[in-house]
Amino acid sequence: MNRVVVTGIGALTAIGNSVPEYLEGLKTGRSGAGPITQFDPELFKTQFACEVKDWDPATKLDARAIRRQDRYTVMALYTAYEALEMSGLLTIDEEGKPQVAVDPDRAGCIWASGIGGLRSLEEQIEIFEGGNGTPRYNPFMIPRMIANMGAGYVSMEFNLRGPSYATVSACASGGHALAAAADDIRLGRADIMVTGGSEAVVTKVGIGGFNSMKALSTRNDDMATASRPYDADRDGFVLGEGAGAFVLESLEHAQARGATILAEVAGYAASSDAYHISAPHPEGAGAKMAMVNALKYANLSPADVDYINTHGTSTPLGDTAELKAIQLAFGEDAYNLHISSTKSMTGHLLGAAAAIESVACVLAIQHNFVPPTINHFTDDPNIDPKLNLTFNKSVEKTIDVALSNTFGFGGHNSATIFKRFNP
Predict the structure, then answer these.
(1) DSSP 213
(2) Sign, Cα dihedral of 404, 211, 11, 162
């Protein structure tokens, strides 16, 4: 089977609109939370989110195309563009159109979104309700709304005619997209895959829906520190938006063209809690199996892992269940590795979480550091104090193997392992 390597990454988050900016935000431990600007949140219990800031997609994308697409799709295109640029595969023709130097039949795109074009659906319903009752909708409503259009538009923009589809498994979506894309390369179905995830649901329905579940923090008086994974006073997650992108290649293809290899995709696994629609298994049974099987797939032992980027959403039940799962999967080795939740900085990107957090894992390997879990003030007595949760400040450390966990409503679990490339 083919080895799978990473040759490009892209990032768009509340703490940075590019990979270099995201890296700086991770290293400095910057909070991306602030007042919601995309609608008036005055009547909502939660009035803040981790929004992307000062972002102009027209610096890379066609302005007309931007107007026709939902925000989540634009984010997908923007980060895919950055990842392809970094990979050295992207060129611009005389008409200013992007060209990718690959056999289009051997390149594809698998893209994740947990919800898709919620903003577009919400806008069209509001227009209909504010009208005279005549069912007149924008002809782009359905294409803007459906969750496969991230994959569709990326494939069309860059002429990728290989495998192309979307994964939708709530907050585990991005992990499943990465695994599926890697499998296409590993099994010889493609030489290159663009993959990742994007989400843009800082909307009335998004905030209101999660508020009704009592899933979001309501710390309106202290927004910047509201995302508090593992803190005793955590009260829910902070909704984020953005995207993360990858260019994956077979090792043979990457070496043949002299590509810079950022990391290797070592292993991945999926599992189900088979327990509850939204609550995690209290003992982390499904999460444990995802990690154990990912290690088996990668032919690694628990002692080989240097860093775990956790799902760590800042919810009372979820954080402790995941740490129990880590201890079950890693045993005594759990005390020798670094653990952190970058959602403390970016908020929770739902279907894009695994993508952007996997980018953080690759950056940790490249730059030898552990991103922090910021906003820690009070120890949780239900969390083992011997676990190194990398509170408040990043740590310089050689990272050869990093694992990304993501878990979604419905009991979906995903674990992905990246390692330093060694020929």
Answers:
(1) T
(2) positive
Same domain? For 60 and 161 the reply is yes
End-to-end CA distance of the chain: 15
Listed residues 238, 263, 288: the one ending a domain: 263
Ramachandran sector of residue 373 (left: φ over 0; alpha: ψ -120 to 50; beta: rest): beta
DSSP 345-359: HH-B-GGGHHHHHHH
Report DSSP state, residue 334.
G
Say how many CA atoms lie within 13 Å of 421 toward its Cβ: 21
* Pairwise CA distance, residues 214 & 209, whole Å: 9
Model confidence pLDDT, tens digit, residues 22-49: 999 999 999 999 999 999 999 999 999 9
Q: Hunting for tokens 């032992």 — which residue is that?
A: 301
Neighbours of 133 (CB within 10 A): 7
Q: Which residues pair with 197 in a beta bridge?
A: 112, 244
> Residue 172's domain spans which residues?
4-263
How far is Cα 66 from Cα 57, in angstroms, rounded to an integer?
Answer: 8
| 61-93 pLDDT per residue, tens | 988 888 889 999 999 999 999 999 999 999 888
Total structural domains in the chain?
2
Give residue-wise pLDDT tens across range 301-332: 999 999 999 999 999 999 999 999 999 999 99
Cα distance between residue 63 and residue 138, in whole Å? 18
Residues 12 and 103 grouped into a single domain: yes
Give the number of other Cβ atoms within 10 Å of residue 194's Cβ: 33
pLDDT tens by residue, 146-197: 999 999 999 999 999 999 999 999 999 999 999 999 999 999 999 999 999 9
Burial class of residue 219 in the structure, from the number of CB atoms within 10 Å of its CB (0-12 exposed, 13-18 middle, 19+ buried): buried
Catalytic residues: 171, 311, 348
Please give the sequence-ordered ranges of beta strands (E in DSSP) within 145-282, or none if there are none: 164-167, 192-199, 242-250, 263-272
- Average pLDDT for residues 211-222, to the nearest whole number? 97
- pLDDT of 306 reads 98
What distance separates the 2 farthest-apart alpha carbons in the chain? 66
